[in-house]
Amino acid sequence: xxxxxxxxxxxxxxxxxxxxxxxxxxxxxxxxxxxxxxxxxxxxxxxxxxxxxxxxxxxxxxxxxxxxxxxxxxxxxxxxxxxxxxxxxxxxxxxxxxxxxxxxxx
Length: 106
What we know:
Elements: H1 17-23, E1 30-33, E2 36-38, E3 41-49, H2 55-67, H3 70-77, E4 84-92, E5 97-105
Antiparallel strand pairs: 1-2, 3-5, 4-5
């Protein structure tokens, strides 16, 4: 996102988390019950700062942001997810930094 200058679940070329899972041969199929399956999920978060914050502040603000958003909170609280990963990218802007966090579920 930082390198392509956007902040969204879908890239400018139309790729989403499912395409990224496919790119790295990560197969996700988790039973949701009732014969339904989830094939993954994603939360994203971004903050701008005049200076690089420490890891604790980044973690606290990212998780607070997700938990205060109904749709992101719903992703986090699903009982059927077996795996979760979080990636952080810090992009220097000249006026400070933009910190991107992506949380993926399977």
